[in-house]
Amino acid sequence: MTFDILINDGVAEIAMNVPPVNAFGFKHLELLAQKVTSFGEDSTVRVVLIYGEGRGFCGGSNIKEIAENPDCISNVNRAAFGAFKAIHHCKVPVISAVHGFALGTGAAIVGASDIVIAAEGAKFGLPEINVGMLGGASHMLRILPLSKVRTMYYTGRPIDAEEMYRLGAVETVVPSDNLLGTARELARDIASKSPIGLRFAKEALNAIEPVDLERNYRFEQGYTFEISQLDEGRESRKAFNEGREADYKK
Known about the structure:
The structure is a single chain. The protein has one domain: Alpha-Beta Complex (2-enoyl-CoA Hydratase, Chain A, domain 1), CATH 3.90.226.10. It has 11 helices and 11 strands. The chain has helices at residues 26-41, 63-68, 73-88, 105-112, 137-140, 146-155, 161-166, 179-191, 195-207, 213-228, 231-242; strands spanning 3-8, 11-16, 23-24, 47-52, 60-61, 94-98, 101-103, 115-119, 123-125, 159-160, 172-174. The strands form 3 sheets. The chain has a 6-stranded mixed beta sheet, sandwiched between helices. A 3-stranded mixed beta sheet has the order 7-9-10. It has a two-stranded parallel ribbon with strand order 3-5. The termini are far apart.
């Protein structure tokens, strides 16, 4: 099962379930976009809640898939753009409940969401530079300061949920056992509000954002495509899959 779906009292839940670490290929991203968009169009849905099954929220893109078929990067780019846009422009609020890790694609899902709840010790990161890709900075800049995002982007090092909370990027940090309960409680509270009011509020908040998220992310993706086709990008992915340090010596 790729996604487990539950709809109850106006809350649509999407449980991402792609073992072992919820690393997504382009078909997973396309399906996520379809699910989120359909819930936004459903008049009975007032909130969407996204969370991950297993070890973590989302471990990023399926690097093995890309390494084995470099030509699929265009499909991955297109599907990622569509998935993150679907979350950002979903007609109702989207909550992400994060445990374990939200890396790369996972971090972008978080950054595209309206509200984030995190489990203690959860890690958020943009490790793309380690695998011959780029991306996700546009989404992290919605919730984190520029200097922090630059450090994450250049180093690939993650930051933890407590640091995310300190910087105002997550609403609250709770013990892992309380994560879904806390997220569902918040979702039910939001779902109790005026249905049309929530949709107007989402549209208004998106309209007054200071940057064009999709334009900025598309710009990033141009560099992702370019580096992914270079020898250094291929070496990065090969080294990652082989569990060794990349060799950039010419």
